[in-house]
Amino acid sequence: MDELLDLIDDNNQITGTVAKSIAHRDGLLHRIVIGEIINSKGEYCFVEQAGDRQDPGQFVSPIGGHVKAGESPDSALLRECQEECGFTPADFKFVGQTVFNRKVIGRHENHLFLVYVIHSDGPITLNLESVGFRWFSVPEIQSTLQTNPQLFGAAWHHVFKNCFSQIHSSNYD
Asked: Is residue 63 part of a domain?
């Protein structure tokens, strides 16, 4: 069954409701929550995308999912974290937003990413959207961006350039 999403304008104001398939077919702007998990060592968790997903085989943010029609972003974050990583976060904070618009796997995704930081040491239990996960220190992220930036997916690059610029330097481009 196709879930319903709230459409939004450039000011994040709801303008209507539509099925997710229509939003992706027509490139209509809607909300996505993104969660970056950081452990007590300051390491970031990344999941490796399954082959049938956007950015297959690349590392991406561990939590990412649609905000359903009528759902608050915080509620969507809690639901998505449970679905994708197997736990409900107790410590999370909204850190920013950015629009990411691309055509991928036969869809036109036009998403307002609502980005959160989640502090947790796990445990992490992945669903079928991911084939593995890994913790990266900030120096490892920065080094990988210099030597192998394609290890990370396009959506992750967009989130980190726009919401974590102190980690994601644009000097490797």
From this structure: yes
The CATH number of the domain where 92 resides is what?
Answer: 3.90.79.10
Two tokens at 89? 């976060």
Owning domain of residue 52: 4-167
Distance (Å) of CA 61 to CA 3, 130, 135: 22, 11, 11
Give the total number of structural domains in the chain: 1
User: 167: which strand partners?
Assistant: none
Kindly state whether residue 141 falls inside one of the protein's structural domains. yes
From 130, 167, 123, 126, select the one nearest 53 (Cα to Cα): 130
**Does residue 172 form part of some domain?**
no
pLDDT tens, N- to C-terminus, the chain (173 residues): 689 999 999 999 999 999 999 999 999 999 999 999 999 999 999 999 887 777 778 999 999 999 999 999 999 999 999 999 999 999 999 999 999 998 877 889 999 999 999 999 978 998 888 888 999 999 999 999 999 999 999 999 999 999 988 776 544 44
